[in-house]
Inverse folding.
C-alpha cells in the first residue's frame, strides 16, 4: 500500500509544462450541451421505437395495497401492460450485497406494503406517453391504511442514538460549560430540503437475448449495475449500465429508483425498449431528501473569547426502514479549538420518504448552527466574529490531535475580509440604511472533508495519435469530462484536442462515481496513474524499437511534450511511434488506492463566506446584495469549472438561508411542496453580485496530484453568513431556517 | 389530428394525438430532444422554445394549436458548425454545468433580447417611457423563468452580457 510520502515527488501535473492544469478551458462536452445534442437517459436512441412507462403513486403513507382493478386500464388504447403489487414480476433483494443504502428505493418495486406517501404502487406501459398517462388514471386501488408517524417535531421524544454510533467526548464538557464565564446555549433548526435536480430520474432499457442495456440518470455506475443485476436475478455481466450525461445529481441520484427497475422488467416482458421518467412531483415524493435537523449548540468561553467548552448535538430523521443519519455535528470536530468537547447525533424514524445524502451532507445543515452561534457569541463578548474565530484557531485537529494536511482557514478569513470590505461593518445591528433597505454584513467559516476512494481508469493511444481515457465515472455537471481530459493531456504532453474522454459505462474500468466531493480527486488520480503507465509503456516501446530515434536509450530518461516522445534532442511524434511499432494501439490501466497513512492527517477543504444583504423592515423581505467567498481546496484543475462549482454551492447556501424548505402534510404524509413553484430554488433574480476566489494550495497528503474536491465546500457555511448579515442589518436573530419574510417580521426588534 | 408548422426553417407535418404538448411532439414525435422536460408545468423553463420569435414554455402548449407557426428550437440556432452567438457565449463563459436547463436558457435569452429590443418593460424597469437598457438587474429579472439548479447564474449573466444585442 502506498504512503502519502510517495505523493510528494514532482510529476507531470506539478510541473505542468503545457500549462493545462488550472487553465479554464471550455467544457469538453460543452458544444453538445449548448446545441442540445447531449443525449440524456430518456433521449437515447433505442434499437427500435420504445414504449412509454408511467408510474402510479400511493396516496397513503403506511399500510397495504388491498386490491387493484386494472381492467379499465388494460382495455384502454395502446396499453401494453399494467402492473400492480399483485402481478409485478418477482424481483431479487436489491443491492444488499453491494451497498445497504441501495435498498432504500422501494424494495421490491411495486410492493404491496406501503412505507411512505408517493411510493409507487402501479406501472402502465403504452405505445405513447399520452396513452400511458390516460390509462394510469384508470387503475383503481383500495388501501388498508395504518397509523403513521409523520411529523418530526411531534416525535422528537422518540429520538434514539443511531445504530453503531456513540457521542464523541473530549475532556469534561459539562463541568467546563458550567464554570465558563460567558455561555451560549441555543437551538438552531435546518429544514427538510429537496435536491430538485433539473432532470427528473429517467431510464431507457432494452434487451438483447439475456443481456440488458440501460441508460439511466445515476451518479454511481457500478452501484446501479449491481443493484439492477440483483433485482433481475442475473449476473452483473449481463447488465450494461450507461450514464453519459446527467442533468444534476447533488446526491439525489446516488442510488437507483423504480424507473430503472421497471423499465428493465417491462422491456424484458414486452421484448421492446421501454423508457420511464419520473414526473416532477414524483421527484419530490419518491426519491430522497435532506432531512430537517435540530441542533443544540453550547459554547462556554473565557472573556477573551477562548472556548473552553464546545457542544453540538444534532437530532434528525429518516424513513423507518431506511436508516440514514445526517451527520450535522461531524464537521465541528475539526473546526475550532476547545479542550472540552461533545458532539453527537440522534435519529427519529418516520413513515415519510427516505432521507439521504444531499450536497455536503452534514456540513450543509450543521454549519448553519455553529457559524451563527459563533456570531452570537462574538456579540456577547464584544468581539469581531473573525477575531473570535482566530482566537480559537487550533494548531492540530482539536479532537484527535492529528496534524492538518493543509489548513488555510485563517487566510481565507483575513483575505476575504480585506477584499470584501469587512472593516466597514458596523457591529451594532440596524445602523445602516439604503433607501427603504436596512443593510448588513455577515460572515461564516467553511469546512468540508476531503476524501479519496479506490478507482481505476483505462487509457489507450491509437495509431493516429488519439488518446482515449475510459472510466466508469460520471459527470453530473461538475466538469469531470473536462478535468480528466486536462489531466490526461498534461500527463502525456499532448494537446487537449488529441484526447478523448469516455465516461458513464459499466464496461469501463470502475470508479466510485460522483459524490462527497471525492470525484475529481478519485477519478482524476486514477486517470493520472493510467497516464503514467502509458508513458512507461510508450517509453519502453520507443527505446526497444530499432526504428525509433530513441532506440537503446534508458526508458527512465524519456520525456513527453508537444505531442512528442523524446530523449534530449532526439524526438518523434507519438503517432509515428505507435503507427510503426504498435499499429493496433497501446492500452493500459491505472489505479489509485488511499494511502495507508492518509488517516494520520486531518484533511479538509476550507473557506470563508462574506455576505451583504438588504432587509425591508416593512415586508420582512431579504435581498442578497453581494456575496464573496475565499476558498482553499488544493491544486485547482480548471479555473472555470472549479469556480462554477464553488459559486454554485454558495448559491445553494443562499437558497438554504432564504428560500428552501419543505414540510410534511400531517394528514397524508406527503410533502406540501411538490413542484418548482411551491419549492423555490434560487432563480436569476435572487442572486446579485456573487463571486469567489481560490487560494494557492497543493495538498501533497491528499493524492498524487495534490488536488481536493470543490463540489460541496461552497455550500458549507454559506447560509450562516447570510443569516448573520440579516442580524447585522436589522437585529432579527432567526435560528429557524430559512429566513422567510414572516419570520423576519416576527423577529424584528 | 393533422397539424403542420415550420420547424427550424423546415416544413413539418404531423398526425398527432391532440393531447400531445408541443414539448412532447418535439421530443417524441419529431426527434428534437434538445428541448428539455424539467417539470412539465411551466415552472422551470427548460422547455423554452421560440414561436414566431417569442419565447414560450413548450410544455404548456398543445402542439395542434401551432398550425402555421414558425417554431425555433435549440437545434435550429447554429448554422452548421458555427454556433449562434448566444450559444458561443454560453460555452465561453461556462454558463452551465449539467446542461439540462441550457437549451431553455439559450432560447430564452434570444427571446428576451428581442423583447428588450422591442422596448418591453419588466418588473424592475424604472422608466417605462425610456428605451430599455439591459442592466444586470434587468437581465436577472427577465431570465428568472429559467431555473438552473446547478446555479450557474453568475456565468449565465456574463454570457448574456457578452452576447447582448446580437440576437
Amino acid at each position: 500500500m502506498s504512503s502519502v510520502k510517495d505523493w510528494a515527488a514532482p510529476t507531470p501535473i506539478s510541473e505542468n509544462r503545457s500549462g493545462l492544469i488550472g487553465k479554464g478551458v471550455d467544457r469538453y462536452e460543452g458544444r453538445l450541451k449548448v446545441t442540445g445534442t447531449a443525449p440524456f437517459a430518456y433521449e437515447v436512441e433505442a434499437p427500435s421505437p420504445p414504449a412509454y412507462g408511467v408510474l402510479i403513486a400511493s396516496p397513503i403513507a403506511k399500510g397495504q395495497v388491498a386490491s387493484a382493478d386494472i381492467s379499465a386500464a388494460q382495455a384502454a388504447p395502446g396499453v401494453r401492460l399494467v402492473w400492480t403489487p399483485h402481478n409485478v414480476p418477482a424481483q431479487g433483494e436489491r443491492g444488499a450485497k453491494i451497498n445497504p443504502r441501495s435498498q432504500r428505493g422501494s424494495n421490491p418495486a411495486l410492493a404491496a406494503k406501503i412505507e411512505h406517501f408517493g411510493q409507487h404502487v402501479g406501472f402502465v406501459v403504452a405505445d405513447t406517453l399520452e396513452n400511458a398517462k390516460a390509462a394510469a388514471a384508470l387503475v383503481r386501488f383500495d388501501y388498508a391504511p395504518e397509523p403513521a408517524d409523520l411529523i418530526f417535531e411531534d416525535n422528537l421524544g422518540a429520538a434514539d442514538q443511531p445504530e453503531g454510533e456513540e457521542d464523541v467526548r473530549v475532556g469534561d464538557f459539562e463541568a467546563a460549560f458550567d464554570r465558563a464565564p460567558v455561555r451560549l446555549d441555543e437551538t438552531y433548526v435546518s429544514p427538510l430540503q429537496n435536491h430538485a435536480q433539473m432532470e427528473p430520474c429517467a431510464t431507457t432499457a432494452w434487451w438483447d437475448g439475456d443481456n440488458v442495456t440501460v441508460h439511466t440518470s445515476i451518479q454511481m455506475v457500478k452501484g446501479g449495475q449491481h443493484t439492477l443485476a440483483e433485482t433481475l436475478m442475473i449476473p452483473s455481466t449481463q447488465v450494461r449500465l450507461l450514464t453519459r450525461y446527467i442533468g444534476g445529481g447533488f446526491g439525489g441520484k446516488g442510488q437507483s429508483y423504480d424507473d430503472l427497475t421497471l423499465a428493465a422488467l417491462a422491456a424484458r416482458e414486452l421484448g421492446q425498449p421501454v423508457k420511464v421518467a419520473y414526473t416532477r412531483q414524483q421527484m419530490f415524493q419518491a426519491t430522497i431528501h435532506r432531512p430537517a435537523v435540530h441542533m443544540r449548540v453550547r459554547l462556554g468561553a473565557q472573556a477573551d473569547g477562548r472556548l473552553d467548552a464546545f457542544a453540538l448535538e444534532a437530532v434528525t430523521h429518516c424513513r423507518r426502514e431506511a436508516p440514514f443519519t445526517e451527520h450535522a455535528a461531524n464537521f465541528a470536530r475539526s473546526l475550532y479549538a476547545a479542550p472540552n468537547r461533545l458532539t453527537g447525533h440522534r435519529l427519529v424514524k418516520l413513515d415519510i420518504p427516505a432521507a439521504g445524502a444531499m450536497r455536503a451532507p452534514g456540513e450543509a445543515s450543521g454549519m448553519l448552527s455553529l457559524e451563527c452561534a459563533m456570531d452570537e457569541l462574538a456579540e456577547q463578548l464584544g468581539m469581531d466574529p473573525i477575531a473570535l474565530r482566530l482566537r480559537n484557531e487550533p494548531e492540530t485537529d482539536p479532537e484527535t490531535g492529528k496534524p492538518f494536511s493543509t489548513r488555510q482557514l485563517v487566510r481565507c478569513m483575513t483575505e476575504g475580509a480585506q477584499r470584501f470590505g469587512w472593516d466597514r461593518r458596523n457591529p451594532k445591528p440596524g445602523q445602516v440604511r439604503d433607501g427603504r433597505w436596512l443593510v448588513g454584513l455577515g460572515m461564516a467559516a467553511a469546512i468540508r472533508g476531503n476524501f479519496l476512494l479506490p478507482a481505476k481508469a483505462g487509457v489507450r493511444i491509437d495509431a493516429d495519435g488519439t488518446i482515449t481515457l475510459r472510466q466508469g465515472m460520471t459527470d453530473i455537471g461538475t466538469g469531470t469530462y473536462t478535468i480528466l481530459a486536462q489531466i490526461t493531456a498534461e500527463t502525456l504532453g499532448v494537446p487537449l484536442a488529441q484526447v478523448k474522454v469516455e465516461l458513464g459505462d459499466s464496461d469501463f474500468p470502475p470508479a466510485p462515481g460522483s459524490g462527497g466531493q471525492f470525484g475529481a480527486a478519485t477519478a482524476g488520480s486514477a486517470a493520472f496513474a493510467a497516464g503514467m503507465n502509458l508513458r512507461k509503456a510508450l517509453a519502453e516501446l520507443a527505446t526497444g524499437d530499432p526504428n525509433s530515434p530513441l532506440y537503446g536509450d534508458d526508458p527512465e530518461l524519456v520525456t513527453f511534450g508537444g505531442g512528442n516522445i523524446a530523449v534530449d534532442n532526439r524526438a518523434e511524434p507519438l503517432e509515428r511511434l505507435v503507427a510503426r511499432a504498435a499499429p493496433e494501439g497501446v492500452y493500459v490501466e491505472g489505479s489509485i488506492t488511499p494511502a495507508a497513512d492518509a488517516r494520520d492527517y486531518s484533511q479538509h477543504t476550507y473557506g470563508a463566506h462574506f455576505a451583504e444583504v438588504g432587509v425591508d423592515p416593512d415586508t420582512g423581505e431579504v435581498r442578497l446584495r453581494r456575496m464573496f467567498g475565499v476558498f482553499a481546496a488544493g491544486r485547482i484543475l480548471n479555473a472555470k469549472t472549479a469556480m462554477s462549482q464553488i459559486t454554485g454551492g454558495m448559491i445553494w447556501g443562499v437558497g438554504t438561508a432564504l428560500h428552501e424548505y419543505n414540510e410534511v402534510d400531517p394528514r397524508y404524509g406527503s410533502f406540501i411542496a411538490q413542484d418548482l413553484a411551491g419549492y423555490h430554488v434560487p432563480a436569476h433574480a435572487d442572486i446579485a453580485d456573487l463571486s469567489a476566489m481560490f487560494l494557492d494550495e497543493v495538498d501533497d497528503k491528499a493524492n498524487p496530484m495534490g488536488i481536493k474536491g470543490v463540489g460541496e465546500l461552497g455550500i458549507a457555511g454559506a447560509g450562516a453568513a447570510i443569516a448573520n448579515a440579516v442580524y447585522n442589518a436589522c437585529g432579527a436573530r432567526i435560528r429557524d431556517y430559512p429566513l422567510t419574510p414572516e419570520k423576519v417580521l416576527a423577529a424584528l426588534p | 389530428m393533422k397539424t403542420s408548422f415550420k420547424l427550424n426553417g423546415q416544413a413539418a407535418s404531423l398526425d398527432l394525438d391532440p393531447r400531445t404538448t408541443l414539448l412532447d411532439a418535439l421530443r417524441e414525435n419529431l426527434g428534437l430532444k434538445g428541448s428539455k422536460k424539467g417539470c412539465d408545468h411551466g415552472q422551470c423553463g427548460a422547455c423554452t422554445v421560440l414561436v414566431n420569435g417569442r419565447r414560450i414554455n413548450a410544455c404548456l402548449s398543445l402542439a395542434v394549436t401551432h398550425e402555421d407557426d414558425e417554431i425555433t428550437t435549440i437545434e435550429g440556432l447554429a448554422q452548421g458548425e458555427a454556433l449562434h452567438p448566444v450559444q458561443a457565449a454560453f460555452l465561453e463563459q461556462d454558463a452551465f454545468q449539467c446542461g439540462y436547463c441550457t437549451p431553455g436558457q439559450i432560447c430564452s435569452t434570444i427571446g428576451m433580447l428581442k423583447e428588450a429590443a422591442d422596448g418591453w418593460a419588466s418588473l424592475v424597469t424604472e422608466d417605462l417611457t425610456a428605451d430599455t437598457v439591459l442592466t444586470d438587474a434587468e437581465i436577472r429579472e427577465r431570465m428568472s423563468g429559467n431555473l438552473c439548479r446547478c446555479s450557474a447564474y453568475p456565468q449565465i449573466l456574463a454570457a448574456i452580457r457578452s452576447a447582448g444585442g446580437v440576437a
Notes: The longest strand of chain A covers residues 307-319.
